[in-house]
Amino acid sequence: MVSEHKITMLGTGLIGMFYTMTLHDQRGKERVHAVYSRNEEKVKKFAKDWNIPAYYISMEEAINDPETDTVVIGLPNHLHKQAVELSAKAGKAILCTKPLARNALEAKELLGIVEKSGVFHAYLEDLAYTPKTLKSLASVKRGDLGRILWVRSREAHSGPHSEWFWDVEQAGGGAIIDLGCHCIEIARNFIGKDIKPLEVMCWTDTQVHPIEAEDNGIGLVKYENGAIGQFEVSWTFRGGMDLRDEISGTEGSIWLDHFLRTGYEMFTTGSKGGYVAEKSESNTGWLFPVGDEVHELGYVSMFNDVFNAMDNGTAPMESFYDGYIVNAIMDACYNSAKTKKWETVHIDNWRGINQGRAKAVTESFDANHFLVKKEQMPDGQLKLILKEKKSGKIIERIVKAGDRLEND
Ligand SMILES: NC(=O)c1ccc[n+]([C@@H]2O[C@H](COP(=O)([O-])OP(=O)(O)OC[C@H]3O[C@@H](n4cnc5c(N)ncnc54)[C@H](O)[C@@H]3O)[C@@H](O)[C@H]2O)c1
């Protein structure tokens, strides 16, 4: 079934603009029909620029525009709750940007609201949908990497573009709430969303900016099957937006670089100025523009998945439940940063599986040994590291050409 949805867009800032650009320029079928911002001059201009028929300076009126069936929330974090409440009351589909909320308690309330009212809901986690991430997820699902052991995800730039991000009350935190939410959900997708995150060890610091919240953070998220998610976030990194992921499994590895230095390099003396890419710090000298930014950042595939799910009556890849789990992990991060200890991730009504820890693989080599490692040496010999089953002793053995591998 092909439907044409009419959308109320809440917010005319950076994300409101990226979302509208994607919907109007790339998808075409869905249109932003109504837009809200508290500033009349800005919302009027936004509506004109993007050919949007109705604009509002009242959030409630924008949500209740009789022509629209879907609300996209692109407002600062502290306004997500009000927007979700009003949209659910209006019975409209709700697509909310990241982070879902400022903490897990608030996120749980939002999840409760959408589930009670029965409206369609999606968590707009675009970085789970980048072209490289989607292809990598397919490889991982196929088993190309074996069992996933470690996912490292990094997002770093020189800090956000609007004042409210820097205010811990409005944002709920600093770089972790802003960027860590992406990294955590990327790792969850690779490790498996059914696998329970158990506990977290986290370091935060405010190294540069005069703010209450952290401008840098590193965290380890331990999952029930033994996999580890590692995130690194920074609001002090200079030189653009660094978006990278690494996935390691028992049978393979993937390294992803999504944004900086991905094969498009340009030099200009800068006489004309102009936009290069999100969070680019310069428009002169050697630059790293991004070809199709809304695609590279996942917005196109994200809206395809979300609207296809809406039309087919299925669930999108990212739901409010996922947003809640991410908030629960981030709560544990903030807790651990304070206590300097591993802290439990508290999740109400875990909906995944409880599978216990995966065992280390013990590949039997022969009757008396387990195989630890097999390596081809530069001189052409094959070296075996073996563990004696009875004594537990680790030994090595060189296999010469013509030797039989099995048996003592
Ligand atoms: N990749 C992503 O998914 C991504 C990227 C950027 C931002 N975001 C998220 O989108 C949301 C908005 O971020 P942004 O970058 O667009 O911010 P922004 O500051 O660029 O825009 C915020 C919008 O909200 C309005 N606004 C601000 N304070 C308000 C208030 N007190 N009352 C009413 N309206 C208010 C502003 O006028 C503006 O229209 C945040 O939740 C942020 O985390 C997501």
Calculate the terminal CA-CA distance, rounded to whole Å: 65 Å
The backbone outline, from C-alpha atoms, is: globular
How many structurally independent domains? 3
CATH topology of the largest domain, anyone? Dihydrodipicolinate Reductase, domain 2
Q: Mind telling me which CATH architecture of the largest domain this is?
A: 2-Layer Sandwich
Strand order of the largest sheet: 12-11-7-10-9-8-15
Order of helices and strands: EHEHEHEHEHEHEHHEEEEEEEHHHEEEEE
* Mean pLDDT reading: 95
Q: Look at the helices and sheets and give the structural class.
A: alpha/beta
Q: How many separate helices?
A: 11
Number of strands: 19
What percentage of amino acids are in beta strands?
25-35%
CATH class of the largest domain: Alpha Beta
Describe this structure in words.
The protein is an alpha/beta fold and 408 residues long. It has 3 domains: 6-125, Rossmann fold (3-Layer(aba) Sandwich), CATH 3.40.50.720; 127-301 and 315-344, Dihydrodipicolinate Reductase, domain 2, CATH 3.30.360.10; 363-399, no CATH class. It has helices spanning 14-27, 40-49, 59-63, 80-89, 104-117, 131-142, 168-171, 175-191, 293-296, 299-312, 320-339, and strands at residues 6-10, 31-36, 54-56, 70-73, 93-97, 121-124, 148-156, 197-205, 216-223, 228-234, 242-249, 252-257, 266-268, 285-287, 343-344, 363-366, 369-376, 382-388, 394-399. Strands 12-11-7-10-9-8-15 form a 7-stranded mixed sheet. The protein has a 6-stranded parallel sheet with strand order 3-2-1-4-5-6, sandwiched between helices. A 4-stranded antiparallel sheet has the order 16-17-18-19, with no helix packed on it. β5, α5 and β6 (121-124) form a beta-alpha-beta unit. α8 (175-191) packs across α11 (320-339). The chain is globular. The structure holds nicotinamide-adenine-dinucleotide. Residues 11-16, 37-39, 74-77, 79, 97-98, 124, 126, 162, 164 line the site of nicotinamide-adenine-dinucleotide.
